[in-house]
From TrEMBL:
Protein name (Swiss-Prot/TrEMBL): LuxR family transcriptional regulator
GO molecular function, one term: DNA binding
GO BP annotations, alphabetical order: regulation of DNA-templated transcription
Gene3D superfamilies: Winged helix-like DNA-binding domain superfamily/Winged helix DNA-binding domain
Record-linked InterPro entries: Sig_transdc_resp-reg_C-effctor, TrmB-like, WH-like_DNA-bd_sf
Length: 354
């Protein structure tokens, strides 16, 4: 019998070509065959038949049996092939997983002690500043793996880079498959980012919810109402990891308030969204903010910000930025005053001088 190949065939190598599949099917139907018989049945050369049969041999799907008339190829059961090819690797992987489970169990045994210590002192790790980006990502991945109920995400600054979204999507889809609620807030300007649109489409299709708001507070990530990740103002690679229950609960309430004001994500602006953007822009102009600050606040590029400012000033007939903010504020106030009160609104109780 021929020598079996060393186990460890990669995923790509495990796929049979059409000619190799024909050889395997022929051996199953006709029994052991010599190279010459295989060549005749397949209408090819004997050398080519041996190459194809050798491909099956590497995958443990064929064996080479010597006999008096010459070597003969025979088919091997896929069950046997899987055992020979994958068994050793599966055994190593199983042992490794057992080792990892034991380490996690030993570390998890320390959690009650850690949480009790956290309740006694805020210096015990309830607030932790992590300066290594790799460690931040490792902690986020671990929090996501242990998450069972809810993830809240705030991503200000317009559309996110495509690379960041590609890395986040598998993690977020896994959370949704496990029944975890996923709520994400973007700024309105993210609606025009193609990569963000694709990400949102995939997440929403899996059961997540995404909304947008004109202005947002800083980036935030909260897992299960127990662990929050916040930015470090002077280090974009660092994060503040917050585990103090009252502080995390406060962040969740801030998120809930913003969520109620936000609109479902769409690939364009609604009339209400456009008005909100103009109102925010007008307020920024009236307060004398520079274009760079306005752009950062509204999550848009500087070029886009300046285009919006020019369009707004032209629409209002304003000669200065301050005048544009003032005129838009007047228009918004007039529109609000023109809205009739709802039919069930109670009558005013104020007297003639009220």
């Amino acid at each position: 019998m021929g020598t079996a190949p060393a186990p460890g065939v990669s995923d790509g190598e495990s796929d049979l070509a059409d000619d190799e599949l024909r050889v395997y099917q022929h051996l199953l139907e006709q029994g052991p065959q010599s190279s010459a018989a295989l060549a005749g049945a397949l209408g090819t050369t004997e050398d080519r038949a041996e190459v194809l049969a050798g491909g099956l041999l590497r995958r443990c799907l064929a064996a080479l049996d010597p006999d008096a008339a010459g070597p003969r190829w025979r088919a091997v059961s896929p069950y046997t092939a899987a055992a020979e090819l994958l068994g050793p690797e599966e055994h190593v992987l199983h042992r490794r997983l057992e080792d990892l489970a034991r380490v996690r169990q030993r570390l998890s045994a320390l959690i009650p002690l850690y949480e009790e210590s956290s309740r006694r002192s805020t210096d015990s790790g309830a607030i932790e500043v992590v300066t290594s980006r790799d460690r931040v990502m490792l902690l986020i991945g671990d929090a996501a793996a242990r998450c069972t109920e809810e993830v809240l995400t705030v991503q200000p600054g317009g559309g996110r880079p495509a690379g960041h979204l590609e890395r986040a999507l598998p993690r977020d889809l896994d959370l949704l498959r496990r029944g975890v609620r996923l709520h994400t807030l973007y700024q309105h300007t993210a609606r025009y980012s193609p990569s963000t649109q694709e990400y949102v489409q995939a997440v929403v299709a899996a059961g997540g919810e995404v909304r947008t708001l004109g202005e947002l507070f800083h980036k935030m990530l909260v897992f299960d109402g127990s662990t929050a990740f916040l930015p470090v103002w002077d280090n974009p690679d660092a994060a503040v990891v917050l585990r103090e229950p009252s502080a995390v609960a406060y962040l969740r309430s801030v998120f809930a308030h913003a969520w109620d004001l936000a609109e479902p994500f769409a690939a364009s602006y609604s009339a209400a969204t456009a008005l909100q953007l103009h109102t925010s822009l007008a307020g920024s102009l009236a307060s004398g903010m520079k274009d760079e600050v306005i752009a950062r606040r509204l999550g848009m590029s500087l070029r886009t910000c300046r285009r919006h400012v020019a369009e707004l000033m032209a629409e209002l007939g304003a000669e200065s930025r301050f005048q544009a903010g003032y005129l838009l504020a007047l228009r918004t106030h007039a529109q609000d005053a023109a809205v009739p009160a709802p039919p069930d609104a109670p009558p005013s109780r104020s007297g003639p001088g009220g």
